Amino acid sequence: MKKPLDAKSVWAPSNAFIPERDLDKTPILEARHLGIDFGGLTAVDDFNLTIGKTEIAGLIGPNGAGKTTVFNLLTKVYQPTRGTILLDGVDTHGMSTVQVNKLGIARTFQNIRLFNSLTVEENVKIGMHNSITYSSIEGILRMPRYWKYEKIAHERAMELLSIFNMEGMANAQAGSLPYGAQRRLEIVRALASNPSLLLLDEPAAGMNPSETAELMENIRHIRDLFHIAIILIEHDMNLVMGVCEGICVLNFGKVIAKGNPEQIQANPAVIEAYLGKKKEA
To answer: Where are the CATH 3.40.50.300 domain residues in the chain?
Structure first.
């Protein structure tokens, strides 16, 4: 079993807050002066974020702060109006969602997007599209290369499902799973593309406290097992403060604070964003 990674984070020379263990490595993500406008409305403005190679980070803020918009920019669902996104040092300017996925970024969604009529295993295999090595003809005619890949894909799918102890559900229809299990399946499908950066959009939504506590441990386990970086958007502050090493806070599309959980909890701007400005007596 691999030794868990240390959790100490420091301010890097670039004013980025990343784990000390990642300081000697190229950041997995650098978003520089990122922004997007929809008509005359600025949804995200001058967004800067650096994520270490094996960091677990949180992106939080009140409803409507622009968090999911940032995820959509990073995954090229939206093309930025301005700014630069570097993924493992590579500029993703002009790339499509498919291209950045192949480059190493995967995500889950606020609203679950599974293929409900397919089995659990089939959903996981869909996530392996980047590693398909047989041609369409070989697949249609069920040639030897197809069967070789199918065997590898089955073994890989079962290995990934074991992270959440879901191997026994492999043949179940995805749409028949309980809500929490569907959330976990979406994470497994994202992992199937072998990402170096995993974006989780409200992974604990709809989960009870016991499931959320288990998710917290599984997020750490995924990072330690695959040595990847994870960014999560989440409203459950117990999860965020319990698992994230660095936290970035958005409000009205702008970054208002960065730091470790203790610093964020004590930050007046963050408190005001969530609770409102205290009225003078």
So the answer is: 9-104+195-275
The per-residue b/e assignment along 137-146, b for 16 or more CB within 10 angstroms, e otherwise, is ebeeeeeeeb
Domain covering 9-104+195-275 in this structure, CATH number: 3.40.50.300
pTM: 0.87
Query: Across the strands, what pairs with 75?
Result: none
Taking the C-alpha atoms of residue 240 and residue 250, their distance in angstroms, rounded to an integer, is 14
Helices (H), the chain: 67-74, 97-103, 120-126, 136-140, 144-161, 179-191, 209-226, 237-243, 261-265, 268-275
d(CA 19, CA 11): 9
pLDDT digits (tens, 9 = 90+) for 80-132: 999 999 999 999 999 999 999 999 999 998 888 899 999 999 999 998 876 66
Nearest to 48 by CA among 79, 78, 82, 76: 82
* Largest pairwise CA distance in the chain: 78
Cα–Cα nearest to 103, from 189, 190, 231, 195: 195
